[in-house]
Amino acid sequence: MERFGGPLREKQGGSRWKIGRGRLDLTKIAHFDLKYGIITRLAMLSWRAMEASCTAHLVRACLSRGCLPFTAHSPSIHCPYAPPSGPVVTLSAPAKINLGLRILRKRTDGFHDLETVFLRIGWSDTITITPAEHTIMTCSDPALPVDGSNLCLRAVGAIERILDPPASSGLCVHLQKNLPYGAGLGGGSSDAAACLMAADHMLGAGQSAETLQELAASLGSDVPFFLLEGGVALGTGRGEILRPIPFPDALRDTWLVVVAPPIHVSTAQAFAGITPDASDQGTLSTLVGQGTLADWRAGLVNDFERPLFAVHPRLARIKAALLAKGAAYAAMSGSGSALFGIFATEEQAHGAAQAMEGDVRTWVGPSDAGVGR
Questions:
Q1: Per-residue model confidence (pLDDT) at position 270
Q2: pLDDT at position 6, please?
Q3: d(CA 116, CA 160)
Q4: I need a labelling partner for 54 at 20 to 30 A (CA). Which of 40, 103, 172, 361 fits?
Q5: Nearest to 323 by CA among 304, 300, 340
């Protein structure tokens, strides 16, 4: 295992790239762990294949956003219509949680203005993309649709439609679905962001960051956040207007437990019980950025909790259980149904996760595990 410091630098000649204080031979391309900057897995790949697929540019784009660990390697899964060999791009699509969520007002276009702080976390889906004759999708979860309604294919399609001349081939997208869906963790939005960025590079569209953000917003309110550098942002408008903010001091050296019960909450159901209130507008980022966890517990709220806890009492019980197990702060993420707690130690966090009852899914990790360095 080798450790390199600093971001990816310019090509140094031949098939070597400078990475911080080290050199990486791209006849062996590596998996990048963005939290620690460690190369953890090597796989053989020719520089010619890398160059042909613009994969090196995608490495730079992924690392600059600090959110999408990357692997390029020979295909390891079967994809219909795929060529017998060719470069494969594998991206991690991380989840998010919401640190506070206030519904301010209903708009004339049917959406709601809101205010929230997004935090990217370490729990993620994995997306593998390879060149193919036609664009197609497969998924590890047979319950998820793989037709044109899926955000992954809609993201690839958004890039394909702006190509001039049109692409002569397509992409095969395989989604390894690890995140629960309908849980307020943004898994589908993150998958779409990963596919959007990968398609832009693999199909040679070369769109600007601004254009990619516009395309992301057309796919969904949360999608633009997953293209953003840093991993923490204040979201306003319907969530697509983003302002990066520093990682909150209150979360430093803490551990996060995410609990996802098998309760699917539709967005329409979540908003149906909301009474918008803009009285505290503009104070959320200050509370998150400067407040302690005790301040959060006293004043950081998710407006969806009250109506959804009334409909699904189990959600209230899970939040209470997290607090009873020592969480300094606990809340629901987005419109639910996932909840999270923030703990002082790893031991506390794992103990709380193990104590969760019933058929829930849990994830435990450092609170900054999804934040780019």
A1: 82
A2: 32
A3: 32
A4: 40
A5: 340
